[in-house]
Amino acid sequence: MEFDQTNVEFVNKNSQQNVKYQSNDGLDYIEKLTPKQIVEELDKYIIGQNKAKKVVAIAIRNRLRRQKIQDPILREEIHPKNIIMIGPTGCGKTEIARRLAKLTRAPFVKVEATKFTEVGYVGRDVDSMIRDLVANAVNLVRKEFEKEVEEKAQKNVEDKIIDILLSSKKSKTTKTTKQAPSEDEIMKNPMLLLKTLVDMSQVGKDIQAGLSNSEEQPQQVNNQKQIREAIREQLRRGDLDKHEIEIEIPTPSFPMIQVMGGPNLEEIDMQLQNMFGDLFPKKNKRRKVTIEEAKKILYQQEVDKLIDQEKVKLEAIRRTEQLGIVFIDEIDKICGRNTHHGPDVSREGVQRDLLPIVEGSTVNTRYGPVKTDHILFIAAGAFHTSKPSDLIPELQGRFPLRVELEELTREDFKKILTVPQNSLTKQAIKLLETEGVQLEFTEDAIDEISSIAYELNNRTENIGARRLHTIIETLLEDISFEAPDLPEDKKHIIIDANYVREKISGIVKDKDLSQYIL
Asked: Phi/psi at 32 (nearest 5 deg)?
């Protein structure tokens, strides 16, 4: 299936205007980044692991190079070089893949290989990772297309709400002999405006029916426009958000069919939807909601009308096939021992199920068939009790690039606490700022926290940078609890090395406690 990603143009059935989209699949952005610049972007969030960053940067650049090859036959034959990352937990394997997907604006999904062995041979269908990838791509493309029609959709929603208000038969008019409010008072007071809507709607009906005399008609049309614009202004300010109106909400009349769980639950559900979805069209149900809720509901309806869903599906499938990234974590847990009984048989079975997807096959999804030939697969595992060579030879051959991640040092921990844009200390400071508390970490406190994390990882189980999360939370537990009730003169708190030792050292020295708490 060939699809031109540069310009997508169509005429919506419900609109007289052409809506033109400029596809933005990430290539126009990532092509400006060299492998060195990709590594520099990853450095903003991930400390160390330069070898792994270099390998993934080259893999991404090669995908771009492939797209630029003019010969379509040769371009089709160039497959991505899949990667296995080897390293202890918490050293940055998952974060590298996640940041890479955000950087390239590519469809991305993360799965744990162990979920496929949860109940032996009938674990979760391995094809589900591709279905999840396509679903993510659809959401990604839809958001981009939605931005193009956002302004028009918002205006249509406002027009629809104004029409509902003007035609409402339940609006209460003022029944009083007092002098009618002036035009200025009506415009400024949303409640007075609502009470005059029925009268104004009658003016609109007279205009449409041609009952007004030709001399008065232009003035009435002008008044109608002024009223509509006044209501529109109040809608945008939120003055009418609490007012209730009745709108129509489409509800599917597809019968509820309960399917027992099993390995192919997604496949069964997809087939049922494809077989019976068109036989049970959606029905409209009237529902009374506030205008605030109506804006959201009607906005989605208008976006659905303006966006061609078929174009979204086609573009999503194209991006999945050409740019998709699947991150398979804990792949070391499905390494077998060449035995013919017990759980190892199940693990080898999962490897054989993964093999055709990684090699290149076609997976049926609810959005259409998807080829996996050019999807980039990144696998990761600690490989404490096994090694990559324990994987079946066929699967090993589909992961030609292997990179070993390094264990984190004291200096790495210090950088993790301070350098990244989303560092733990910055997160803690911003969280407590919401309570009016000014939190400050001294340099010696950072040194002490880093030393404790490094020592605990060496002495107990090595969980990498995740150890810092536990230490920071334990360190700030009392402060976080008391923050809302602190007096103003105690809302500037300095965390120094002495404070860290006071809160943490006792737990660190007690080996049994540190195993359970830190």
From this structure: -80, -10
For β-strands 244-251 and 283-290, DSSP reports them as antiparallel
Picking from 234, 206, 230, the residue whose alpha carbon sits closest to that of residue 220 is 206
Instruction: Tell me the C-alpha distance between 372 and 358, whole Å.
Output: 7
Helix, coil or strand: residue 365 = strand
Contact (CB, 8 A) for 261 and 308 = no
Residue 386, SS3? coil
462: tokens are 């090595």
* Distance, CA of 372 to CA of 356 (rounded, Å): 9
Q: Determine if the pTM surpasses 0.85.
A: no
Structure tokens at 95: 């974060």
Distance CA 76, CA 158 (A): 48
**453 SS3 class:** helix
Helix H or strand E encompassing 72: helix 72-77
Q: Angle at the Cα of 382 (from 379 to 386), degrees rounded to 5?
A: 100
Q: What is the pLDDT of residues 392-442, one digit of tens each?
A: 888 888 999 988 888 888 898 898 898 888 888 999 999 999 999 999 999
Q: Name the CA dihedral angle for 434, 437, 441, 442, rounded to a multiple of 10 degrees.
A: 150
Of 325, 324, 331, 326, nearest to 380 by C-alpha is 331
CA dist 114 and 341 (Å) reads: 18
As given in the structure block, the two tokens for residue 478 are 């009392």
User: Residue 193: which of 160, 231, 223 has the closest Cα?
Assistant: 231
Tokens of 130: 């591709």
In residues, how long is the chain? 518
CA angle 92, 96, 102 (to 5 degrees): 145
Which residue pairs, CB below 8 angstroms and at least 24 apart, start in 503-509?
Answer: 503/474, 503/475, 503/478, 504/449, 504/452, 504/471, 504/474, 504/475, 505/452, 507/474, 508/452, 508/455, 508/456
Strands of the sheet with 401-404, listed across from one edge: 108-112, 325-329, 376-381, 83-86, 401-404
For residue 202, count other CB atoms closer than 10 A to its CB.
Answer: 11
Looking at this protein, which amino acid is placed at residue 60?
I
Long-range contacts of the stretch 223-229 (C-beta < 8 A, 24+) = 224/200, 227/193, 227/196, 227/200, 228/162, 228/166
Which residues face 444 on adjacent strands?
A: none
Closest listed residue to residue 113, CA positions, set 299, 355, 293: 355
Taking alpha carbons only, the member of 128, 134, 101, 130 closest to residue 116 is 128
* 123: helix, strand or coil: coil
- Residue-wise pLDDT for 236-293, tens only, equals 888 777 888 888 777 655 554 444 444 455 555 555 555 555 555 566 778 788 888 8
Q: For residue 145, give both structure tokens.
A: 């297309």
